[in-house]
Amino acid sequence: MTTKTQEITGDISINTENILPIIKKWLYSEQEIFVRELISNAFDAINKYKKIKISEGVGDITSKGKIKIKIDKDKKTLTFADNGLGMDAEEIQKYINQIAFSGAEDFIKKYKDKDEKNQIIGHFGLGFYSAFMAAELVEINSLSYKKGAQAVNWQCDGTSKFSIKPTKKTEVGTDVILHINKENEKFLEESKITELVKKYANFLPVEIEIDGKLTNDQNPLWLKQPAEIKDEEYKEFYQKLFPFSPEPLFWIHLNVDYPFSLKGILYFPKILHELDSHKGQVKLFCQQVFVTDNAKEIIPEFLTLLQGTVDCPDIPLNVSRSYLQNDPYVQKISKHITKKVADKLNELYKKDKENFEKYWTDISPFIKFGMMNNHDFYEKVKDIVIFPSSSGDNTSLKDYLERNKDKNKDTIFYCTDKESKIVHLNMLKEHGLEIIFLDSVIDSHFINFLESKDPKIKYKSIDSEVDEHLIDKTAQNEIEDPKGNKALKEKIETIFKENLKNEKLKIKVEDLKSDKTSAIIMQSEHLKRMKDMSLMMRQKLPEQMFEDYTLVINTKSPVIKNILKLSETPNKGLNTEMLCNQVYDLAVLAQGPVSGEQKQRFIDRTNTILASLEG
Questions:
Q1: What is the pTM of this model?
Q2: Which CATH topology does 8-214 take?
Q3: What CATH number should be reported for the domain whose range is 221-355?
């Protein structure tokens, strides 16, 4: 028989006079977590009562657990009511005045003086006292399941003072009543509380009502067996998690019970543009309660480009991120997730190549980023990386090297912008050379990474130098100017240097096999990669750093031959300087965009040349 409760007032047994202001200040930007903490406490009470009903044969075993949230704007109260096992006065003294408060106190003592306020996974551990982040007064009305128990009311205004007294309550369970302070009246809006319940407890296996309306889904898809789930169900669940998102490409269902517990679904999202690849979101749950969507110590960083859910019931959540980084259990989970993702990609590549290639544009940034950041992932997927090729098909690097081993052994030709490099591209294609296309901002960094992994393979941009396959090695460098004893190449070089008057520009004369191109611009591989990487990293480096270009002039070109003749027999309307600059500008235009000033000079000069033509 429980003794009758007398009204009690007193001080909560803590060393700190008042840690609640510290809690409020320390977690100011995350006040909303009190919703999760109070729902978690209510769910815990319901679960315990369910076990007691079975073991002790008390209460109605058929009644369902339920959490009811009630909003009273007039009284400015927010109530969390559960039909769990309840508490009597003695238990409130023990669990609220001592254990709960000391737990919150320990939590704050451990972290308040460290620069870790945003480094605690989920901020679990504050528990009941997180309610004071939004309330000026908190009440508890509770009736224990114990026979003869008397309902009690507990009150605290955020200081160390409390009171306990008898109250009227007929149903077993606990009501936590928050008297919301003026600064936090947003928590009296049904839409706000609904949003938070869906965020933190949408998949909790107990009904949660807000003012009588069922709010949550108690059966998350990740708890079902994969064999029982249809594709449409996976897609519908994705829309619940990420409303208005395009349909996912494919997904992985995680379902592990041993040696650790891990469940979840990871989706590969449709990426609308490259920047989207940084906006993935993997939601971490602990026993179906939302913890965070920023758990890079548990979810490998490169996998956060994906979207979905991971439920890890055994992860310690009230510890710092630095602790988790070295936790063996967490490392095992991280490795397992990495393996499952790599296995799925390999399976798709081998069994459904057509769809794999169709998805490639969307998944390639994630795969490349993962390879550069995780060695295990690199080893598992390195042979399934594909690139669009000038052959018209996609190719793996292994297949490319095998196909071209007789032409360009251990060299891979690549192009980063086929529209602006069309001249270079066509020159190589004419001579049977295959080019892969790198069309992602991450690719300049990626090829550096690939070279570091296999130094014997070289990646050569098609506009970095004239490949030997394009040069006519049978051409004779004849003496063109007997008086000055200058060979043909030397004379052409002299003409262009004298007329272009550009000291920064290097000039090189080559006997190209084709006579279609008069001149092309080349930039060193090193500078080209540096420029591409600076663009990728959004670094604004001085343009002068990259002004190291080479003008390659083709001796076989009829245009160059005419310039040679003109240099010896001047024309009234045309002059060598004008044509040399025209050839240079044509090469620059073929390389890419030019300044407005340079474009105007080119147009004016072109008009002059056309006007000088005789009818």
A1: 0.76
A2: Heat Shock Protein 90 (3.30.565)
A3: 3.30.230.80
